[in-house]
Amino acid sequence: MDARKLRILAAVVDNYIKTGEPVGSKTISMMPDIKVSAATVRNDMAVLEELGLLEQPHTSAGRIPTFSGYRLYIEEILGKTELEESEKQRLDAMLGDEKLLTEELLLQSASTALAEITKCATVVSNFAPKYSVISKVEVIPTGKRLYVVLLITSNGKIKNKACRMEFDLTEEHMEFLKNFLEENLEGVSVSELSDERLDKLITAVGTYMVALSPLVKGICEMSRDLQKNEVIVTGEQNLLSCGDLDKGEVVRFISHKNELEGLLDDSMSGVQIMFGEEEHDSFAIGNSSMIVSKYQKGGKTVGSLGVIGPVRLDYAKIIPYIDYFTEKLTRFLSGEGEGKEEGNEE
Predict the structure, then answer these.
(1) How far apart are CA 329 and CA 294, in angstroms?
(2) Sequence-ordered list of residues with C-beta below 8 angstroms from that of 232, at least 6 positions apart, any chain
(3) What is the pLDDT of residues 155-196, one digit of tens each?
(4) What angle do CA 233, 235, 237 make, to 5 degrees?
(5) CA atoms within 13 A on the CB side of 173
(6) What is the DSSP string of 312-340?
(7) Model confidence over 216-259: pLDDT tens digits?
(8) What is the sign of the dihedral through the CA atoms of 50, 51, 56 and 60?
(9) Do residues 106 and 332 make contact, with C-beta atoms less than 8 angstroms apart?
């Protein structure tokens, strides 16, 4: 895989993104940075096809990139591009005043701004809750045989669940439950709440099992929910207006977008690209791609931000926007931005 073949691959990808039409050897040979004959280009394109980086949609047509070709183009050829200072200022203005932003508001602003600029849908995943600890669990009577369980984590995440009981709890029940939760849950890291540990928590209620089981089970359900990645998709209407995508598949995706949670985790590094056809039921829009990049807090990956759009995205233009926003989020969450405020720390 020499430099010339990489330039030819890049040229095919760039042309196909612009035109949507298969790219021929004559077109490539006329480009100033290629400087070889059409016959030589044809030979190199044949090699690229054998390597699975290009394909020929039909006989006598030019070539188009495969998913592997796109991936190599993005990961090895594009490189890192810095935005112009004026463009950075425009993006900062879209985000708003950092001094007034919380972590949640900044994520919302970045997602909305990215959708507006790219004309794609944006996806934000947040892994932060599972790195926090449970700071408070409280059971509050709210009516006859009705109780609300309140669970608060150190990063400010609040979950609540209403539980209807078979009978009203006595003061003895409430006092036992208060002490039990303080001893077994408060101060425990969410990431340590394995299914085995939560199951043991239910059995540990002992003689109070019959009376308190619904409440403890409700607390376990909320604890399991905290271990899931939060995924928010914005700008779905952009997908519906994209001619390269099937509208029926987009509608089905919008109805099941929570399934993206299984694709985005904290093990990813750098820019990650996924294609709809490769991800099966979790990301079932044909001819689509998703590009995401991670953001960090305290040296840990706590989330990712990216776009969902057609395969024929202008990656050279869009990836620098994603990089800028994720770097901005990392600086903000690490206390390097102007908007660092009390209460944002875990």
Answers:
(1) 9
(2) 107, 111, 123, 124, 125, 126
(3) 778 889 999 888 888 899 899 989 988 988 888 888 788 888
(4) 120
(5) 19
(6) S--HHHHHHHHHHHHHHHHHHHTT-STT-
(7) 888 888 888 887 777 889 999 999 999 899 999 999 888 887 77
(8) negative
(9) yes
